[in-house]
Amino acid sequence: MDILISDFIERLSSSSPTPGGGSVTALLGAFSSSLTMMVGNLTYGKKKYEEAWDKAKEVIDEAKNLNEEFLLLFYEDMEAFTKLLASFSLPRETEEEKKRREEEIEKATKKAIEVPLKVMEKSKKCLELTLIMAKIGNLNAISDVGIAGEIAFSACKSASFNVLINLKFLKDSEYSLEIEKRQREILDEVRALKEEIESIVIKKIK
């Protein structure tokens, strides 16, 4: 299912629960990977950057895969949130219904956590690719490298909010602690990557 940008903006600004912030974070990731791929394409095949062609081609291929994964997560987030809302609407008249409802809420909540966590992980990978292009990419597109880095970091940081808000609904405390720790680790890693990219970009711009 393809959504026009204008339609997406209109739906996003409406009272409809989907699309929401989760889909936006995945879209940010897609923007970042697209920019990184663009810089790769502006580097590969250019005589001036011949020594970087092999690495640039690797980045192009990996960024393309990331782009497709981000777009899948865009739709997965909407689906996960829709299922989570549906689980809260399940009947709870009998003890059996209550038990089933609790199990479905727990299951749907974990899915609603796993999707933004994937966005975080893919954003980290995107920053790793962007860092490569910061080092070897076409200097005429170095500002695009900086923008790609900032957007990927924003995607990751923003996705962490959706991880955290859903964790509080879980009863599985062991799972919650594990996920909370993982998202902190990813944030630390992407912050370092973003700062390194920014440092390189600023030096090359000046």
Percentage of helical residues?
Answer: over 70%
**CA radius of gyration:** 20 Å
Biggest pleated-sheet summary: none
Beta-strand segment tally: 0
Which structural category fits the helices and strands? mainly alpha
Q: Helix-strand pattern, N to C?
A: HHHHHH
Number of helices, where a helix is a run of at least 4 consecutive DSSP H or I residues: 6
Q: How does the overall form come out from the CA principal axes?
A: elongated
Quaternary state, please?
single chain
Poorly predicted segments: none
Strand content: under 5%
Give the N-terminus to C-terminus distance in angstroms. 43 Å
In short:
With 206 residues, the protein is mainly α.
Can you give a write-up of this model?
The chain is mainly α and 206 residues long. Helices cover 82% and strands 0% of the residues. The chain has 6 helices and no strands. The chain is elongated, with a radius of gyration of 20 Å.
Secondary structure layout plus pairing:
Layout: H1 5-12, H2 21-43, H3 53-88, H4 95-136, H5 142-167, H6 173-205
Helix pairs in contact: 2-3, 2-4, 2-5, 3-4, 4-5, 4-6, 5-6
Protein traits:
mainly alpha; 206 residues
